[in-house]
Protein 1
Amino acid sequence: MSEELKEMTLEAAFARLDEITKALEDPKTSLEDSFSLYREGSGLLKMADGKIDMVEKQVQMISEDGSTEDFR
């Protein structure tokens, strides 16, 4: 994972994913660009998933009863 992705906030990642989705839906986007955008989006999703998992683990650690039902 690149340093740029590691430093990106979840909000920025979701905003970029929204841009990527719109570009992929545009019929003017070339096949080559679509592959590049898909690859970028996959990386963003993987990074976001990792950050969300980390936050869930932190919340679980501070939860008094250890319940994570509210976070799924």
Protein 2
Amino acid sequence: MRVDKADSAISRVKCVVSACRYYAHGDHCLASSIEIQPSDASDTEETGCATFSPKR
């Protein structure tokens, strides 16, 4: 999944994964959009951020 890095954070989205390229200080996400998967998840532990991309 190719997502552009935005100049401002997505409002109301908190990200604590500092190893992600979209992470910004203060636990903000700078991805232009996010995708949470899988579609058949039934609780929080079954979900994950498909937008995650490691910092390079």
Protein 3
Amino acid sequence: MPKIKTHKATAKRFKKTKNNKLLMRKSGQDHFNSRERGKTTRQKRRDVVMSATQAKIIKTLMPYL
């Protein structure tokens, strides 16, 4: 049986931690940020741990990660 291919666009956007949790970037960092509060801008710089239901879908696209 052949290997399952990793979805490369997904692999570039998500990172797996030591305890098998998935990290993702917060959305909305590209433009129109001048109108946001400073607190919001700072919070968007951090990676966020995905929920278990979202992570289950992503793990099917990245079988070997």
